[in-house]
Design a protein that fits this description.
The chain has 294 residues and is mainly α. It has one domain: Rhopdopsin 7-helix transmembrane proteins (Up-down Bundle), CATH 1.20.1070. The protein has helices at 2-19, 43-75, 82-101, 103-106, 112-120, 141-173, 179-212, 223-231, 234-245, 247-293, and strands at residues 21-26, 29-34, 130-134. A three-stranded antiparallel β-sheet has the order 1-2-3, with helices on both faces. A hairpin with a 2-residue loop joins strand 1 and strand 2 (29-34). Helix 6 packs antiparallel against helix 7. The protein is globular, with a radius of gyration of 27 Å. The N and C termini lie far apart (83 Å). Keywords: Membrane, Transmembrane, Transmembrane helix.
Length: 294
């Protein structure tokens, strides 16, 4: 299941690299800009970026309770069958597809009026590639954000319930576990808890601002950048959680870092030594010529 999560994170990173999103809060309108120079103002381009980004942002949340359910099934005889877990995964995929299919109706394509607003915010002409969340143009924006919040709330409710049940099972059978099994279970617990904790801070708070900024007519020049960076830190931190919580991965990573720095240090040392030798030879030649002249 960690492999599936890592694969989703990889797709998430690729989609972010393709679209390069930015957010501008302009009073009662939320602008989501795509700063990849290859993305054009065509409705197909801007809405394709919006759908792909939204899909993987919330898929990375919906996969979290599935991880907990799968782990509960492994440690408990009363857990779900693997086929049931696949059905839950299929339901999540289907719901997200339906959710994203409404985005071209929920958000507005670029037009002259929105262009003027963004120019007044200091956005250059070449960066006017965006979708606009305008509550006056379409009230469906509010149910859209309600659906986003619903996915997060349901996911974390399921995580809490399944985590409590899993801990009860582990405590019951802990005395029968070997030391290595007990350690492996603790490592797994730390990893999935960290991966579940990150989105609470990095995704929920930005989603809150995205949802309520158009309603309360909130304006900010810099909060959008902070929110975008926050949302897209999740894949990096998920990978770090695995590396930090598994001793063998941690040692391998640490050795790799030391190897890189040692190579750089060796190169610098070698360069400095060769420079010193070169200067010494030059000085000796210079000294010899002066002595001959005298």
């Amino acid at each position: 299941m960690l492999i599936l999560n890592a694969f989703i994170d990889l797709l998430y990173v690729i989609s972010t690299t393709i679209s390069v999103p930015n957010v501008v809060f302009a009073s009662d309108i939320l602008f989501i800009l795509w700063e990849n120079p290859f993305v054009t103002r065509r409705p197909f381009d801007v809405f394709a970026c919006m759908m792909i980004q939204t899909y993987f942002i919330y898929f990375s949340v919906l996969i979290l309770p599935i991880q907990f359910i799968y782990r509960y099934s492994v440690v408990s005889s009363n857990g779900c069958k693997f086929s049931t877990i696949l059905k839950i995964l299929a339901c999540c995929i289907t719901y997200l597809l339906v959710h994203c299919s409404f985005l071209s109706y929920t958000y507005q394509a670029p037009n002259a009026g929105y262009d003027k607003m963004l120019r007044e915010k200091g956005i250059p002409e070449e960066d006017l590639v965006y979708v606009a969340g305008d509550k006056h143009a379409n009230w469906w924006l509010l149910p859209h954000f309600g659906s986003c919040m619903l996915m997060v709330i349901v996911s974390y409710t399921a995580i809490i319930i399944v985590y409590i049940k899993t801990q009860k099972v582990l405590r019951r059978f802990e005395i029968h576990m070997t030391a290595s099994t007990r350690q492996a279970q603790r490592q797994m617990t730390r990893i999935i808890l960290l991966q579940a904790f990150y989105p609470i801070i990095l995704l929920c708070f930005p989603s809150f601002f995205f949802a309520f900024a158009p309603i309360i007519n909130f304006k900010s020049d810099y909060l959008g950048i902070v929110c975008v960076i926050s949302i897209h830190l999740t894949p990096i931190l998920n990978s770090m959680a695995v590396v930090l919580c598994v001793p063998s991965y941690r040692r391998t990573t640490w050795r790799f870092i030391l190897l890189i720095f040692n190579r750089d240090a060796a190169k610098v040392s070698s360069t400095e030594t060769s420079n010193i030798k070169s200067l010494t030879r030059t000085a000796k030649r210079g000294g010899g010529s002066v002595q001959t002249t005298g």
